[in-house]
Design brief:
Elements lengths: L2 H4 L3 H16 L4 H18 L3 H12 L5 H17 L3 H14 L4 H20 L3 H21 L5 H11 L5
Keywords: Chloroplast, Membrane, Photosynthesis, Plastid, Repeat, Thylakoid, TPR repeat
Main location: plastid
Function: Seems to be required for the assembly of the photosystem I complex.
Amino acid sequence: MSRSRINGNFIDKTFSIVANILLGIIPTTSEEKKAFTYYRDGMLAQSEGNYAEALQSYYEATRPEMDPYDRSYILYNIGLIHTSNGEHTKALEYYFRALERNPFLPQAFNNMAVICHYRGEQAILEGDSEIAEVWSNQAAEYWKQAIALTPSNYIEARNWLKITKGFELE
């Protein structure tokens, strides 16, 4: 049984009803409908903190989904879960894969920057300033890309770039 059919939350039920209506109206193939159903189930499971179930639904959604734009969001959400689970290498892999299909995902650049910044901070704690600098520089590059895509967002990153890197964004 699809997760959306067993969820008791009013907002989730409303979303599911609207999504089902749209699936019936918008001309889509059965494979596209299948991918969307898995994606929707993954989002619902993720919102409830059921990450293993969400990952399974997202992986299933990648099989029939051919549209690169839609696929990029599935891959991005897989990256989010790996980030939440502390699996930063896997998260970075999925963010990269999402950006290969859709280079206009500032949130993916931001999350990659956050991971790099974290790794830089960890390197400082371990006394490895050289590695810390490499991670810090990589974080700066990702934040610059995120800010370039959405100039009014990521104020903290903008301030960090200005203070630590002496970088002034227009």
